[in-house]
Amino acid sequence: MKKWLWTLGISSLLAGVVLTGCNFADEEPSSEPTEGGNTDGEVVELTLTGWQSSPTEQRYFEETVATFEEQNPDIKVNINTIPDQYMDVLRTRLIGGEGPDVFFLDAFEAPGLIETGAVEPLDEYITDEFDLADFEQPLLEAFERNGVLYGLPKDTSTLALFYNIDMLEEAGFDGPPETWEELEEMAIALTNDDEYGFGVVTDLARLMFIAQSNGGQIATDNQATFADPRVVEALQPIVDMRNVDGSAVEPSEVGADWGGEMFGLERVAMVIEGNWTVPFLDENFEDVNYGVAEVPTINGNEGTMAYTVSYVMNRNSEHKEEAWRLIEFLTGKEGMELWTSSGLTLPTRASVSEKLDYADDPIYGPFIAGQSYATVWADDTNLPIVNNNFQNQFTSAFLGQRDLAEALKEAEEVANSEIQ
């Protein structure tokens, strides 16, 4: 979905971005959809703002927008890209009254920006023909606040288990683990002098579903609660895989920058990563014989993470009817099929996944399967603060520098102090 998920890591990009203290509701423009369309023969220009993506992803995006323009000759879409510090730049433009008509909004950032009043509610624009029920519901819910829908997810990525087929066969395994207990046992058997059974990415964006698998929550009532003994108990096995079993490592320990790279270098036999890893491996490590499976169950329950980005409308846009037509096309069945046919991102509509045969594909199928039960990388408005404070302390515990419970207790106290 986003190149930064594997080049920089989620946490490094999101660090320090806190959406508080801004209120865009003062101008109080009408939230009613404009009646009818543009009937005076003039071309309405819309600005659509997003972030940088790979050249291939950008090409598919531009081609999809061009198809919309062909079908809507009364609308010209000007694509604007913010290459760095996306939310900071976007927020500044919105405050200054120079915001785009339509823009990308990550589920991670959505609660904070929605609270400012900068985003137009979409419920009154959506018709039965749009088929809202076709979307995967957890992805829609990431852009709801108090029962109101503010964004429509344009695509998604989930996590699945990548496993090295040759390494598993050499160790006597005929397939990937189905439960977390099996993963731990296989990781020990797959570990030798310079290869490890399991690779771990130690940020909360990858671990949130595991942290909450025992019933604890990383945040409650918009306060950090990841020192909950149930969270500690859920995460302790991962720490023990490195410090007790010696079967797990994080990327920097094997000379890699991220999970997909340490797997491609064949320094680990298994890693939980996103679908963005597929084109990376195919382009850079074509000789690696790998398979993909759903994440092993924990306590008998399925789980994974989902990351999603929506198209949203600027509440102060002067061309709301045209802006909705653009969002309607881009997240409609035709537009979504065009956009996600590259395989770099996955559809958020079940019908599009079925039409593109992703669900039955041996590589992409596990990612699609996870959409229905995934934990979406989103929470209340303080998730950026919660995330930042979790990251460093959990990593120190994983590397054996601190006791996990003590590390998370300190991180939680600091997080809540910053929140207050």
Automatic annotation (TrEMBL):
Q: State whether keyword Acyltransferase applies.
A: no
UniProt GO cellular component terms: ATP-binding cassette (ABC) transporter complex, substrate-binding subunit-containing
Q: Tell me which Pfam families the record gives.
A: SBP_bac_1
Q: PROSITE patterns recorded for this chain?
A: PROKAR_LIPOPROTEIN
Q: Among the record's GO biological process terms, what is one?
A: maltodextrin transmembrane transport
Signal peptide segment? 1-25
InterPro entries reported for this sequence:
SBP (IPR006059)
Q: Name one GO molecular function term.
A: maltose binding
The source's superkingdom equals: Bacteria
Keywords recorded for this protein, A-Z:
Signal, Sugar transport, Transport
Q: Which family does it belong to?
A: Belongs to the bacterial solute-binding protein 1 family.
Protein name, please?
Answer: Sugar transport system (Sugar-binding protein)
